[in-house]
Each structure stands twice: as structure tokens, then as C-alpha cells.
Amino acid sequence: MKPYYLTTAIDYANGSPHLGHAYEKILADVISRTKRAMGQPTHFVTGLDEHGQKVQQGAENEGIDPQSRCDRIAEEFTNLLGELNISNDDYIRTTETRHKKVVSSLLQDLFDRGEIYQAEYSGFYSTRAEQFLQEKDKVNGEWPEIFGEVTEITEKNYFFKLGKYQQWLLQFLEENSDFILPQHRQSQVVEFLKEPLNDLCISRPKERLSWGIPLPFDQEYVTYVWFDALVNYVTAADYGKKSFSNLWPADLHVIGKDILAPPHAVYWPIMLKACNLQLPKQILAHGWWTSSGAKMSKSTGETVNPLELVNEYGTDIFRYFVMREMKVGQDAEFSLERFESRYRADLGNDLGNLVSRLLHMCTNYFEGIVPEASTIEEPEDILMKKWQDTKRLSLEFFTRFQFSQGLEEVSGFIRSINKYADERVPWKLAKSADLKDQQNLKTCLSTMVEALRLANVLLVAVMPEVHEKISERLGIPVSKNWQTDLDWDNRLEGKQLKEKIILFPRK
Question: Which of 33, 80, 112, 331 could be joined to 287 by an S-S link, Cβ 3.0–4.6 Å?
Fold first, then answer.
């Protein structure tokens, strides 16, 4: 079976990790873990984009060579992956020999087939965006702040025949309406393509920029950073080797909406088409984290260091918050107040309290042995029906990458377990000498244990460490197969549980 091949955008080596970087990695990781739980092997790749003018300038400002600076930043990003418990299978850096070879091979092939040509260009250039600009990029006659300083230059460069494929790409998008998710993002790309598409400058003269991959057909130039960076997806799939077909085409590219058009939705499909390579099956464009309604950015000082929250609250709490708070494809507001609210309500009061009191009652009333559910009545029937609805809906949401909505269903089921306990009042039943009450007590605790086991299975992709802790308390291995682990079967009856644990201490 071909592994499900998914990638994130590779981060740019121009600064330290922030909330947006962390979210994208967690989103891709949750998708990967979900696919594995559903029986689909995965190959999950992320990495670092290390070339370009901003990297070169950053190194010059620090008085060090670009590679040393990239090595330091790469360590920051790989440390983040470890802290966030990201299960990537590969980490690619664009300064690696394997990548340079692939970029050179593709460039040479395109040049040999006349897809790349040299011409003189006069126009405007943004160092911040590392791209040439056109008059249409102005807003009210001015260059937007996102471009930073814009200068007018004239120089010879090499161009890729992007415009040649404009109509092909439009037709492709018309025939593949779910190529880009969510669908309104695809509509935006179609609108973008209604304007004439200029050929893409894919080189920078070494006299202006030396930090890059040299063009194989002209050593006086280096490769434009976006052409270089996008190729990482085929490099990581072993382009040029027999094993390439084992992974390519990619099943999913996970990216931010700000690099959808033109890089991933225009440049990349056309580059692949020109190279006679298959296109990825889908692109998933997620939104931005905002603060007071505005995008978080270093320039405004509105950033969040994810490691600070991880160190204070724990990895899984952070993972849960970002997946629960942001609906994929939409923007989401970040505030410490919202974070703490999720921690107290969803995790502390609902899940944490359930685990603690259930284990405590089983220990006190039955020496930690899960009793048999001997009398199934209306309260149990209601809870089991709730589980069937939760299972169906959450899997539907997870399959469509709608993890916020899926987690909402799981959280609702956990609240239903607590409500069931409040209705059955096992702490009162335990004090009764009545045989019927004692039977109901056994049924109640057995039902709660099974319901907790099932809810915990659905948390494995988002909160793997919490899932493991709960599983260990229940005396069962971590869940690896949703096809077998999501059926209500009271499999823990007669099993020994461990004593209670405080999963989410009060802050």
C-alpha cells in the first residue's frame, strides 16, 4: 500500500518559531496520526527553507556565514518538533546535497527543453518578499507594507514559461473542484488566474545574491528561493530514484493561506506539469492566528512563543487548544484567557474530573476491578446511543480535516459521561444495601469505564501523551487501530485498574 504522503510548508530560516509554525506542524501531525489510526501508513515530511536574500542579509547583520545561521535556526525548529511531539518521518533542509541535486536536475531538464530562457528585465523588486512586482500589486497607487522597501532595477535573468500553462491550470481547477481545501480558497486562485500570468523569474545574479543553488547551465546565477523551496516535496519523495513512485504524488500539502497563490497553487502545479510530473492530490490551506482581530506578526510585536505555553501547561494541552480553537481554513483568535478557559472547562472540569473520580470510585468500591454491567436500562441505552452518534460524526469530521468540530463531538460525549454519572449517582448507590442498587452501581461504573475508553481512543491523534496516561490507568495498550477499538464491547470487565491520576492540575 502506498503511504499517505503529506507535507507541511517548509519554514523559512529567517527567524524563530512562532504560533503559526507550531499550529501547522500539529495540524499535519494530527492528520498523520489519524490516518495511521484508520489503518493507512503515512510518510510525513516537514523541513526548513534555507536560501534567499533575507537569509544572506540576516547572516551579514550577525557577522556570521549563512550556513552557520541556518544550522542554528534549524536546531530551533527541530527542537520545537520534539517539544510538540510531532511524528514526522523526514526533515528536509534545502542546503542538503540531496536537494541541491534534484533542483539542478529539474532546472537543467527544463532549460534543455526550452521552458527556461534568458531576458533582460526592468521593474520593481521587493527584498522582503524576494520577488519582482507589478503595478497591479499596488494598493491605491502605493506599495503595501508587506513588500517593505521596493526598488527599481534592471538586470538580465532567467525566466520560466509560467504564462504558457495558465489556461491549462484554469481548466485543471475547473475539472478538480476539490484540489484546494477549503473550496473558497480554490475560488480565490481561479480569480487570481483571470489576470494575465507573467513568466516567472527563477534566477538571481550572484553579484546581488550569492546564497542559493547555482543554475546548472549558468554558474553566474543562483536559483530563485521559491523555485528552490517548492522542489523539496519531490526531493523528500526520492525524486530520481526507483522508490519515487512509492511516495509520489503527494496526497496532501498543508500550508498557510498566505502562500497559496501564487506559490503553491500556481507556481508549483505548473512546475510539475512542465516537468511531466503528477500533481499533488490536494492542498489544504489553513488560516491565521489573530490577536484583537489582526494577524499576529513580528513586525507588530504580536507573537506567541509556543514553547512558553508548552512548558507551563504541557504539550498535549497546547495541541488540544490549537486544534479545538481553529476551524481549518478559517482564522482564529488567540488569547491567554481563551487558552486558560479551554484548559479549565474541556480538560480540567470535564475529562480530568471524569478520569479522577471514576478511578477513585472503582478503587474504593471494587478494589480497582471493573465490575460487570449486569442491568442495562434507559440511562445506559441513552449513553450508548450518544456514543454511536459521536463515533459517526467525529470520524466524518476527522476524515474531512475538520478537527475542531470532531473534538467538539468528543467533548460533548465526555460531558455526557459526567451527566450520566450525575444521574446514576454511584456515590449514593454505594451506600445502599439494596441488591438492585448494588447491581446498578456495577453497571454504572462498568459503563463509565467503557465510555471513557472509547472517548480516549478518539483523543489519540490530538493528545497522544494524555491518551497514553489514561490507557495506562485502564490497563490497556495505546490505541493503534480505530477499526477494532471504537466498538462498545465492555472489554475491560474484570480488568484491574490503577489508582486515580490528576491529569490537569489547577493553575
Answer: 331
Number of other CB atoms surrounding residue 293 within 10 Å = 7
- Are 94 and 228 in contact by the 8 Å Cβ rule? The answer is yes
* Structural domains of the chain, count: 1
Beta-strand relationship, 150-160 and 116-126: antiparallel
Q: Which domain holds residue 401?
A: 336-485
Is the pTM value of this prediction over 0.70? yes
Contacts 24+ apart (CB under 8 A), 299-306: 303/18, 303/19, 304/18, 304/19, 304/334, 305/16, 305/18, 306/17, 306/18, 306/19, 306/21, 306/22, 306/80, 306/83, 306/84
DSSP-derived 3-state class of residue 94: coil
**Does residue 388 fall inside a structural domain?**
yes
Q: Is residue 401 part of a domain?
A: yes
Q: What whole-number distance in Å separates Cα of residue 116 and Cα of residue 93? A: 25
CA distance 70 to 96: 12
Peptide bond into 464 cis (omega under 30): no
Largest Cα separation within the chain, whole Å, is 94
What's the alpha-carbon Rg for the chain, to the nearest Å?
Answer: 27
Grid cell 510585536 in the structure block, residue: 301
CA distance 371 to 1: 42
CATH code for position 419: 1.10.730.10
Helix ranges (DSSP H) in 140-275: 166-175, 183-192, 225-230, 232-235, 244-247, 268-274
Alpha-carbon distance of 199 to 105, in angstroms, equals 20
- Taking only the tens place, the pLDDT of each residue in 459-507 is 999 999 999 999 999 999 999 999 999 999 999 999 999 999 999 998 7
Q: Which residue has the cell 505548473?
A: 270
3-class DSSP assignment, residue 318: helix
In a domain, 2, yes or no: no
Are the C-beta atoms of residues 462 and 323 closer than 8 Å to each other?
A: yes
All cell numbers assigned to 312: 507551563
Q: Retrieve residue 103's grid coordinates.
A: 533542483
Q: What whole-number distance in Å separates Cα of residue 114 and Cα of residue 94?
A: 26
Indicate whether 408 belongs to any domain.
yes
CB-CB contact of 40 with 57 (8 Å): no
Q: Residue 146 corresponds to which cell in the numbers above? A: 508587506
* One-letter identity of residue 292: S
Phi, psi (deg, nearest 5) at residue 251 = -80, -35
The C-alpha atoms of residue 125 and residue 142 are separated, in whole angstroms, by 14
Taking 90 as the threshold, does the pLDDT of residue 142 lie above it?
no
Helix 306-313 to helix 66-83 angle (10° resolution) is: 30
User: Environment class of residue 145 by beta-carbon count within 10 Å: exposed (0-12), middle (13-18) or buried (19+)?
Assistant: exposed
Q: Is the pLDDT of residue 299 over 60?
A: no
